[in-house]
């Protein structure tokens, strides 16, 4: 019996292929050994190519048939994220022996007590990869099997971390009339991306999975049971907005990981032109002088009873009047008044 635990947590160079089928070292672990974590720092990866092909950390272990069948077999490791990251984890199980009977689990926890799960694999996920958003900090990996009845299982784990600020970003450009802005989203999740959504308002990490914010239709199109709050970004990763303020943009991976950023829009002209000299609903017993201006996008048109006028127009003839002034951002102000002598 081995009385001390051996843990291999190998921090690989940036050029190592992220392939859970080809990880070089293993560790023989027995159930009755103490829980000891060996910590390794996960280096942030800067672009999609590295995220898909290079590993920050690789860890292997062998869960062996215990002498005491009442005990589970397990092994432990930990890693630290230097930045908030989108983490991609791959697990490969290889049975040891000719007649295996195993059901191992690999779980990432956010605390050493292993009470808060962040990512979980079972034997049936072998060869798959999963993604999750994890804030900067230390995380704990447990590989365990409570039903190990035959020689054992080899577990290979690879973890790739993409800095969250590399995973999602946005830029916006206004049209020349300041009537709207086009927001272009850049994401680096590649084939892991499920969709991109945006919603008006400032929301944070704790809101990433709040269904009351990120509602989507039960059925797309006119048969939706309720109007969704969040809007999915169409092809081209761009969307158009006409309102100043903060927008929250969220990416969702194919296995349900969610991450969001806030993007502020300012400088759009949402204000109607200013009109002086006449007020809506007023009756005047003398001539009036109409003046108008717009500090945002500028005046596009001004019409009095359908005829174009300029600022400073004097009106003295009795009658009913409708003044409509529109700026270049298509904000319109209408004033109706009467001159009665």
Question: What descriptors fit this protein?
Answer:
341 residues, mainly beta, Immunoglobulin-like, 3 domains, 26 strands, rod-shaped
Describe this structure in words.
With 341 residues, this protein is mainly β. It folds into three domains: 9-164, Jelly Rolls, CATH 2.60.120; 175-265, Immunoglobulin-like (Sandwich), CATH 2.60.40; 274-339, Immunoglobulin-like (Sandwich). It is built from two helices and 26 strands. The chain has helices spanning 48-53, 164-167, and strands spanning 9-11, 28-29, 39-42, 57-64, 73-81, 85-96, 105-109, 117-122, 129-134, 137-145, 152-163, 168-174, 181-187, 193-200, 231-232, 238-241, 245-253, 258-265, 274-276, 283-284, 288-293, 299-304, 307-308, 313-315, 319-327, 332-339. Strands 1, 2, 4, 6, 9 and 11 form a six-stranded mixed sheet that branches. Strand 22 (299-304) and strand 23 (307-308) form a beta hairpin. It is rod-shaped. Mean pLDDT is 76; it is low at 1-35, 38-49, 51-55 and 218-226.
Write the layout of secondary structure elements.
Elements: E1 9-11, E2 28-29, E3 39-42, H1 48-53, E4 57-64, E5 73-81, E6 85-96, E7 105-109, E8 117-122, E9 129-134, E10 137-145, E11 152-163, H2 164-167, E12 168-174, E13 181-187, E14 193-200, E15 231-232, E16 238-241, E17 245-253, E18 258-265, E19 274-276, E20 283-284, E21 288-293, E22 299-304, E23 307-308, E24 313-315, E25 319-327, E26 332-339
Parallel strand pairs: 2-4, 3-5, 20-26
Antiparallel strand pairs: 1-4, 4-11, 5-10, 6-9, 6-11, 7-8, 7-10, 12-13, 13-16, 14-15, 14-17, 17-18, 19-21, 21-24, 22-23, 22-25, 25-26
């Amino acid at each position: 019996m081995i009385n001390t635990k051996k843990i291999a947590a190998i921090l690989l160079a940036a050029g190592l292929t992220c392939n859970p089928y080809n990880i070089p070292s293993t560790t023989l672990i027995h159930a009755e050994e103490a829980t000891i974590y060996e910590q390794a720092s996960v280096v942030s990866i800067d672009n999609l190519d590295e995220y898909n092909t290079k590993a920050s950390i690789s860890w292997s272990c062998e869960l062996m048939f215990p002498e005491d069948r009442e005990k589970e077999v397990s092994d432990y490791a930990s890693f630290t994220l230097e930045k908030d990251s989108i983490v991609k984890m791959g697990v490969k199980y290889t049975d040891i022996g000719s007649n295996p009977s195993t059901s191992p689990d690999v779980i990432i926890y956010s605390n050493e007590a292993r009470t808060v799960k962040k990512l979980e694999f079972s034997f049936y996920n072998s060869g798959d990869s999963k993604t999750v958003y994890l804030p900067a900090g230390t995380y704990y990996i447990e590989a365990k099997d409570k039903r190990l009845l035959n020689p054992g299982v080899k577990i290979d784990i690879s973890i790739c971390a993409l800095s969250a600020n590399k995973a999602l970003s946005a830029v916006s450009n206004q049209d020349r009339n300041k009537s709207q802005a086009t927001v272009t989203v850049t994401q680096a999740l590649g084939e892991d991306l499920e969709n991109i959504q945006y919603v008006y308002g400032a929301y944070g990490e704790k809101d990433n999975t709040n269904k009351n914010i990120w509602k989507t239709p039960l059925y797309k199109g006119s048969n939706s049971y309720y109007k969704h709050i969040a809007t999915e970004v169409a092809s081209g990763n761009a969307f158009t907005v006409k309102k100043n303020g903060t927008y929250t943009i969220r990416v969702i991976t194919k296995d349900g990981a969610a991450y969001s950023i806030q993007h502020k829009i300012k400088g759009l002209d949402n204000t109607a032109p200013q009109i002086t000299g006449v007020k809506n609903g007023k009756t005047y017993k003398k001539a009036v002088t109409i003046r108008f201006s717009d500090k945002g996008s500028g005046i596009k048109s001004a019409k009095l009873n359908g005829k174009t006028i300029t600022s400073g127009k004097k009106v003295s003839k009795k009658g009913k009047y409708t003044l409509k002034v529109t700026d270049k951002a298509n904000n319109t102000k209408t004033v109706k008044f009467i001159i009665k002598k």
